[in-house]
């Protein structure tokens, strides 16, 4: 009889033969080292990881705290002003506008901040939360979303206001129903009893209930110091909006090609028709169920089983969660009429000129159609025309492919911008699309377009 060791080697192609381990979409089910050793090693590496990402951000952006006078989000947080993306040495925005994509690519003139933004530690990935979210969840629930291996990277002044206001499609008369609080499992009932029906309250409870996730779970394969109950949907979508929390899309492999995801707002999901990072999901019910079954675990059902996947009951739990999400409304826009256009008597001359540009020369309305400023489809901007493929902190900057058209209603409340948060201000977004679309806007036209976007 052939020895067992020989059989195992010949059948499995084992590393016992000294072969190089091949790449796989799957993470190892059994960790290659003890949890205690992993934590010690990653804690020791954390300072270098943080420094490396901070240096990347400094090379790409002007990160100073410089709010725009008199411009604020719905609850009063100042909106950052100015172009923050740094230009390549020896060029200007005016000069870039005169060059072809090929000339920009060959001259390596594409602004670094317009390239895909890597995760704070791209080779590792996973959910990362801003410190203000971590602190408030810990204060209310005693649940700790701190990772021992890395921290969130973007400064707080570039993120949405916290806690965000909540507006309901069913009760617009109430205005912001959050009472200035972060809604959690501790306070949701007192805030919403008498406003929501029993199904909606149960849906909200589930959206606030922590369930196991790839980095936050009870197993030894986690990135929290202590075993964790997990994360809740509204840990990222705080108050049904967004808080800047980031992750990596689960639908691309290998790791270096995965997109960073800037958590999108859930405001207005009732008018949206595409969900998920590659928009393969067609209802918010599909999305809610998929998140719990697979997206929480990097799209790996084996690890989901190991770490504690939450299999929601489609006929009630999924429906209840979706019903609450469908109630989340955009913030009021008093200058817009029922068709989503400016009311001339309420708008400034600059805003009206910006509206004309939006529907004309700037070409924004080709994708962002009123009243909610989305066409509910996807578009491939082909940004790779402007740069040569390169690797940035473990992230291969190459073609992004088709990306969903996100609604622009309430856009000033939702920085940073683009699907991976690479654009820190609306001014950055205007420069990005002006270059990508070849709109050739003047400085004055860019200012008018900014004024219109802030009115949406």
Task: Report on this structure.
- This protein is mainly alpha-helical and 456 residues long.
- The chain has a single domain, classed as Orthogonal Bundle (Cytochrome Bc1 Complex, Chain D, domain 2).
- 30% of the residues lie in helices and 5% in strands.
- It is built from 14 helices and eight strands.
- It has helices at residues 4-12, 35-60, 93-96, 101-106, 131-141, 188-192, 198-207, 233-236, 284-293, 301-307, 314-325, 349-358, 426-437, 443-455; strands at residues 67-72, 78-80, 246-248, 260-262, 378-379, 390-392, 395-397, 403-404.
- It has a two-stranded antiparallel sheet with strand order 1-2. It has a two-stranded antiparallel ribbon with strand order 3-4. A two-stranded antiparallel ribbon has the order 5-8.
- A hairpin with a 5-residue loop joins β1 (67-72) and β2 (78-80).
- The longest helix has 26 residues, at 35-60.
- Mean pLDDT is 93; it is low at 1-18.
Properties at a glance:
456 residues, mainly alpha, globular, disordered N terminus, 30% helix, single chain, two-stranded antiparallel ribbon, Cytochrome Bc1 Complex, Chain D, domain 2
